[in-house]
Write a structure and sequence with these properties.
There is one protein chain. The protein is an alpha/beta fold and about 425 residues long. It contains 18 helices and twelve strands. Strands 1, 2, 3, 6, 7, 8, 9 and 12 form an eight-stranded mixed beta sheet that branches. A two-stranded antiparallel sheet has the order 4-5. It has a two-stranded antiparallel ribbon with strand order 10-11. Helix 2 (about 40-50) links the parallel strand 1 (about 25-35) and strand 2 (about 55-60). Helix 10 (about 220-235) crosses helix 17 (about 380-390) and helix 17 packs antiparallel against helix 18 (about 395-415). The longest helix is centred in the N-terminal third of the chain and has 23 residues, at about 1-25.
């Protein structure tokens, strides 16, 4: 009798434990993201705490490996449930039909109307919606207010034209031989796309046609812009480190360079690493006052073909794009919200740089190009070679002509 009671009690406990385990089990959503997207670990952690049905498992992958790994995973039928990818790669992914059409499930959500036209457009292909931007970045011209004051410049009046950019650089150089007006990341293909291409746009030029079908780099507007920067380099107003250095944040914060291009993500970096560094930001100027431009960068969510937990992944996307998350997690922690209606919030109001970054986001541009990586990001891309040969070597006509030919060849090969 005792053994029967013990057996029955043990069985009941086992059944109870099994049901308890079943009730507590969560769906696991496999999430791939590039490793340099610093907002994601925080977002994933907070989402997992916010509910008890799903666990989002974040797998951070180097950006350079993302496309290859993702295509391979889709090809063998074992993709992640959700990915976060650099915005510039979506034309290629959409054309190769590797992403799930989100038009019906997400395309009419309230937050979609709050994306800038550029952000919304980069995730759209043939009239359908495939990508949801969640971390947008504005390219801006950063300037050292302390150096401006020491050079007799107004720290609240950054350059509004290329002529002023040169004038300010000349005054900075007068502070001493170790001081320079400007530096660019001359060995970084992607960095130069993000922080130099806006100069071409602000001056009426471009690199790729609006439909992404051909090169338009060999133009008089681009020639004038490149000539301006070659003269800046030749006349010693641009740091010689421009030819060597691909990373400028530390160099800029050291106080020897007056102006560099960077992204709004640097606000958080400087606040944490250089809390006493006094700097301002402005737009990339053109020849005429009022003509300025910015590159809109960042990442977007997408669901790969073969995603096994689409509804759960979409719930995570909806939570991330809610206004509350955008303000109380992203803005509060120093990130720029993607939703335009979240840009003017109690946290951004404490620092005008954030409001300026959001204005740049609204006007920013992204080249729509399927072979973006080969054209711009590759180590020996025609974009990088053109800038190095024109700005540093002065072969502007030859550099533009060669770049035009090579970019058109890359586009043609991508279409075949």
């Amino acid at each position: 009798m005792v053994s029967k009671i013990i057996y029955t009690t043990a069985a009941a406990c086992l059944i109870t434990a099994s049901y308890s385990h079943f009730a507590q089990a969560k769906e696991v959503v496999n999430f791939w993201a590039r490793s340099d997207q610093s907002a994601l670990p925080m977002l994933v952690s907070e989402y997992n705490k916010s509910q008890d049905k799903v666990t989002v498992k974040l797998n951070e992958i180097p950006n350079a490996q993302m496309l290859t790994k993702l295509s391979s995973a889709i090809g063998v039928g074992n993709p992640p449930d959700i990915v976060a990818i650099d915005l510039v790669y979506f034309p290629e992914l959409n054309r190769s039909e590797q992403l799930v059409d989100l038009t019906e499930k997400i395309g009419k959500m309230d937050y979609v109307s709050q994306f800038s036209p550029t952000l919304k457009g980069i995730g759209t292909y043939n009239g359908k919606f495939y990508a949801v931007p969640f971390a947008a970045e504005s390219a801006l011209l950063f300037y050292n207010k302390k150096l401006f004051r020491e050079a007799g410049l107004d720290p609240n009046h950054p350059p509004e034209t290329l002529a002023e950019l040169r004038e300010y650089s000349e005054k900075i150089r007068q502070l001493g031989k170790e001081y320079y007006g400007l530096s660019i990341p001359g060995t970084s293909s992607g960095g130069l796309a993000f922080t130099f291409m806006p100069y071409l746009w602000a001056n009426g030029g471009s690199v790729i046609s609006s439909d992404g079908k051909k090169s338009v780099v060999n133009s008089e507007n681009n020639k004038r812009t490149l000539t301006f920067f070659h003269n800046m380099y030749k006349d010693g107003l641009m740091s010689p480190m421009s030819r060597l250095d691909a990373s400028l944040n530390d160099y800029f914060a050291s106080g020897k360079i007056a102006m560099v291009g960077s992204g709004a993500f640097t606000f958080k970096v400087f606040k944490e690493q250089y809390p006493n560094f006094e700097y301002g930001v402005t737009y990339f100027p053109g020849e005429k006052k009022g003509d300025w431009a910015s590159f809109t960068g960042g990442d977007a969510f997408a669901l790969p073909v073969g995603s096994k937990h689409q509804d759960e992944a979409i719930d995570f996307i909806n939570w991330t794009l809610s206004k509350n998350t955008q303000v109380e997690l992203l803005a509060k922690n120093g990130f720029v919200p993607t939703r335009m209606d979240a840009s003017d919030n109690p946290y951004s109001q404490q620092d005008p740089k954030y409001l300026l970054a959001n204005k740049a986001l609204a006007k920013g541009y992204i080249p729509f190009l399927v072979p973006y990586n080969e054209t711009f990001n590759a180590t020996n891309s025609p974009w990088l070679t053109m800038l190095q040969k024109s700005i540093f070597d002065g072969d502007i006509d030859g550099a533009l002509k060669t770049a035009d030919q090579k970019i058109n060849q890359i586009i043609k090969m991508a279409e075949e």
